[in-house]
UniProtKB/TrEMBL annotation:
Organism of provenance: Chelonoidis abingdonii (Abingdon island giant tortoise)
Record's cofactor remark: Binds 2 Zn(2+) ions per subunit.
Cofactor field: Zn(2+)
GO cellular component, one term: cytoplasm
Full protein name: N-acyl-aliphatic-L-amino acid amidohydrolase
Family of the protein in this entry: Belongs to the peptidase M20A family.
Transmembrane segments: none
Length: 334
């Protein structure tokens, strides 16, 4: 694809078997800091028995809904980046700022062997990034959501040890009793945060702590009280300080955004990790996926995206890129 579009292409193996692909559209003033369009290539597993169509077929129904794992998270955005640049190049457009597209692995399991390693490498530093766009979430309303911050992801596994014995006995001080107290405590807090969100119309999901128990393990037989049991929890903690990213790039794109007739509320992101990595590397970043009139189905059964929403997203990215890659030199750039 890079060769077809006349783009530079580089592959960086950041970990054995984990490759970051970089496509580059050179700007007319390469000294200016670049625009980075990031997306990830991995997806989460599926439970095929719960899908109406083959999750890896990309089946399109009569309403134009495309069913596929990754339709929302986030094959759509990867393709929209490419097609937006294809459209702009076909129109003969050139912009001062260089545009890089990065396609990274490992995001769905934390990015530890993907973006987290990549931002520390000289190949990333050479990109001279000034601003990053990454994934957001679908929005079931007419609006498109923009995410300016990120919850802290805290994955914990609690292991409880206790007295083993025969399943017919009332064994004292068992692992199950201990783990039950842990689970009960965390789920009680989960319910309190859920109610806080429900009762305060000014709060969004990004403003409260979410907790979900995601894995249970332990035990060897029905009739044996185990000596050890464990539970895993996915905890997402909202920012506790007022973090603001000064982003003249996004402000500079206000007119083009208004020109496509869309509303862009800005929220704290709840479920993606890569924008935060860019922020930690010292680069302003926003999470944005152009999916409105669309239920949030990332990681869900029957994940889909309507073709009209998908095609409109290409138009929106072409408009945004025209603005972002044309932002005049900032004071720090001389």
């Amino acid at each position: 694809i890079a060769a077809e579009l006349g783009l530079g292409c580089q592959k960086v193996e950041v970990f054995p078997g984990r490759v970051v692909t970089i496509m580059t559209w050179q700007g007319t003033d390469p000294q200016l800091r670049s625009i980075l369009l990031n997306s990830h290539t991995d997806v989460v597993p599926v439970f095929e028995e719960h899908w109406t169509h083959d999750p890896f077929e990309a089946f399109k129904d009569s309403q134009g809904n495309i069913y596929a794992r990754g339709a929302q998270d986030m094959k759509c955005v990867s393709i929209q980046y490419i097609e937006a640049i294809r459209r702009l190049k076909a129109e003969g457009k050139r912009f001062p700022r260089t545009v890089h597209m990065t396609f990274v692995p490992d995001e769905e399991i934390g990015g530890v062997k993907g973006m987290e390693l990549f931002v520390k490498r000289p190949e990333f530093q050479a990109l001279n990034v000034g601003f990053t766009l990454d994934e957001g979430l679908a929005n079931p309303t007419d609006a498109f959501t923009v995410f300016y911050g990120e919850k802290c992801v805290w994955w914990i596994k609690v292991k409880c040890e206790g007295n083993p014995g025969h399943g017919s006995q009332f064994i004292e001080n068992t692992a199950a009793e201990k783990l039950n107290r842990v689970i009960t405590s965390l789920l009680q807090f989960r319910e309190s945060e859920k109610q806080r969100l429900k009762c305060d119309e000014h709060l969004t999901l990004g403003d409260v702590t979410s907790i979900n128990m995601t894995m249970l393990s332990g035990g060897v037989s029905f009739n044996v009280v185990p000596s050890e049991l464990s539970a895993a929890f996915d905890i997402r903690i909202p920012p506790t300080v007022n973090l603001q990213v000064q982003c003249p790039f996004w402000q500079g794109s206000r007119s083009p955004r208004e020109g496509v007739g869309c509303t862009f509320p800005q929220l704290c992101v709840v479920a993606v990790t890569l924008p935060l990595t860019a922020l930690q590397a010292g680069h302003p970043a926003l999470g944005f996926s152009p999916m409105n009139h669309t239920p949030v189905l990332l990681h869900d059964h029957n994940e889909y995206l309507n073709e009209r929403v998908f095609l409109r997203g290409i138009e929106i990215y072409a408009c945004l890129l025209t603005s972002l890659a044309s932002v005049p030199p900032l004071p720090a750039e001389g």
